[in-house]
Amino acid sequence: MVFMENKDNDSAESKEKTEKINKNFKELLEFIRDLIIIFVLAMFFRTFVFENTRVLGPSMEPTLHDGDLIIVNKLEYYFTDPERGEIIVFPYKGDPSKQYIKRIIALPGEVIDIREGKVYINGELYEEEYILEEMQLRGDIDFPYAIPADTYFVMGDNRNNSSDSRYQDVGTIEKDKIIGHAVIRLWPINKFGQIK
């Protein structure tokens, strides 16, 4: 009789142990599933919606500075066209592994001219409050310049220290080559906020 009670206890303990192992294994599988879902969602958002990138160099000063960490909206231009004044990120034609960040100055079909350090669009002076010094460099393309269809003429805010559409190796940027619109500065924290 005592022998039978021990056997029943062993069987109950074994069953309890097996249930505990099964429960732990099930929790592990659920945790792995959740990690995979999070990874897939993160990859989806990074690929199609938002991406963070770091500004390298002084070409966008005073708006953005070397080392600034920004968020790029990659989804926006699937539904709307880029607008003048927006800051965009795109691959450099000479080395697509490098990304450039510049401001859209002229839109498809417009004519841009640079005279006496000033920008003219369709014959009208383009006022830019973010420029700190007069532009000295015109680039290596001929002005006036007609912007081809579905492309955008971009320039850095630091005009005398920017490789941009004024130079043939950058040229105008096709809409389908634009990675996204720079919308938020994350770092430095004291400058956190919307990019204008």
Structural domains: how many: 2
- Main β-sheet, in a few words? 8 strands, antiparallel
CATH class of the largest domain reads: Mainly Beta
Quaternary state of this entry equals single chain
Average pLDDT confidence is: 83
Q: Count the beta strands.
A: 12
Shape summary? elongated
Helical run tally: 1
Order of helices and strands: HEEEEEEEEEEEE
End-to-end distance: 85 Å
CATH topology of the largest domain: Umud Fragment, subunit A
Question: What's the CATH H-level superfamily name of the largest domain?
Answer: Umud Fragment, subunit A
Round the Cα radius of gyration to an integer and report it.
28 Å
Share of helix, binned: 10-25%
Structural class: alpha+beta
Low-confidence parts: none
Give me the CATH architecture of the largest domain, please. Answer: Ribbon
Strand content: 25-35%
Question: How would you describe this structure to a colleague?
Answer:
This protein has 196 residues and is of the alpha+beta class. It has one helix spanning 2-49, and strands spanning 50-54, 69-73, 87-92, 95-106, 111-115, 118-121, 124-125, 145-146, 151-155, 173-174, 180-187, 193-194. The strands form two sheets. Strands 1, 2, 3, 4, 9, 10, 11 and 12 form an eight-stranded antiparallel β-sheet that branches. Strands 7-6-5-8 form a four-stranded antiparallel β-sheet, with no helix packed on it. The radius of gyration is 28 Å and the shape is elongated.
